[in-house]
Amino acid sequence: MAIEIENFRPVTELLPVVRRDVGLEDKTLADPSNALTLVDGEWMAVNENNRAERAVDIASAGNEPVALNTFTKLLYPLWAETGRFDVQANYEKKTPLIYLGGYEFETLIFDPTVTIGGAGGAAISSIHQPVKVASIDIGGKKLSGLVGGSASATGTVVGFVTRLHTDNGGWLRFRGGFGW
User: Fold this and answer.
1) What is the rounded distance in angstroms from the CA atom of residue 57 to the CA atom of residue 120?
2) DSSP helix/strand/coil, 52
3) Contacts of 107 (CB under 8 A, 6+ apart)
């Protein structure tokens, strides 16, 4: 699996989602020449300063979000390709997050083998399986992406698998949002 130009795409153009542009805490993450640059499909959190930051520490693969309680740390998918001009052009480096609404997306930013949540975690292997967020490694690049989980394990469920990557040209399809 490799990082592509498009890593996150809607299943249909008629999705009832609300996007919100949020300034980045670390503006250098919008620079496409930065080795740590964000890619579309990564998961973000909005901090107490109302700034977007990666949902997890990407220092090593398998890290979970620090605050696992959904009500203390909501997680949002990033929907902006690397180097996008409208993000580069504004001072705050505001980047679009899927903020509200139910949605169904396909993503390449996932690791089907990583599990979180202790004994209840499971590799991504079945339809309707919960997915959670953790740091992952794709081709040597560490990112904040989707991993397998279970509803009974610790961690925040951000969606449910609707089509496996093995049956979808390498793309993982998931349903999320749920109007939080």
Assistant:
1) 22
2) strand
3) 7, 8, 9, 41, 77, 145, 146, 171, 172, 174
Q: What's the whole-model pTM score? A: 0.87
Beta-carbon contacts of 26 under 8 Å, excluding residues fewer than 6 positions away, are: 53
How far is the first Cα of the chain from the last one, in angstroms, to the nearest whole number? Answer: 31
pLDDT (tens, 9 = 90+) of the chain, 180 residues, equals 667 788 999 997 766 778 888 889 998 888 888 899 999 999 999 988 899 999 999 988 888 887 544 445 689 999 876 656 566 666 677 888 888 888 899 999 999 988 776 555 678 999 999 999 999 999 999 999 999 987 665 667 899 999 999 999 999 999 987 644
| DSSP line for 61-114 | TTPPPS---TTT--EEEB---TT-HHHHHSTT--EEEEEES-EEEEES-EEEEE
